[in-house]
Amino acid sequence: MTIATRFDRYLKQHNIAFQTIPHEHSRSSLHSGVVAGIPLVNLAKAVVLEDHEGHHVMAVLPSNNKISLSRVNDELNASFHLVKEKQVYELFKDCDSGAVPPIGSPYHMSTLCDETLTNLDAVYLEAGDHETLLKLDREAFNRLMNDSKCFRFSSQVFH
């Protein structure tokens, strides 16, 4: 059970309460939810976006949802595209590939939060490895997302 160094420091500095949820080794955040028995709507995933100037933004959304780049770009009056996986791994060197914690601040990135997550009783997050999830109650998650811009920018892909 390992929490990514930057993420762990950020949680401690901001007094964010959480529970660690160990689970068997997984291949992706979606698989983490399945092996941990977590409802996928309650598991937040990170999608890293980049604009034409190379600025990065992290979008946080339910793991069973798909991001709408057009909604993001309309809301921000911008032109973001998805960052390729290889580049994501370079940005999050203290994390295992595919286990990026869904919070941009520790990585000097602005964060967008899909507002559907802010209304849940509990939200689960990747911790930075493939064997640990963090469980935050609504208050702790909303404190974690305090500096984020929250709006609806995703839709459910499967049930």
From TrEMBL:
Pfam families: tRNA_edit. It comes from the Bacteria. Residues 36-142 form the YbaK/aminoacyl-tRNA synthetase-associated domain. GO terms for molecular function: aminoacyl-tRNA deacylase activity. This is YbaK/EbsC family protein. It comes from Vibrio ponticus.
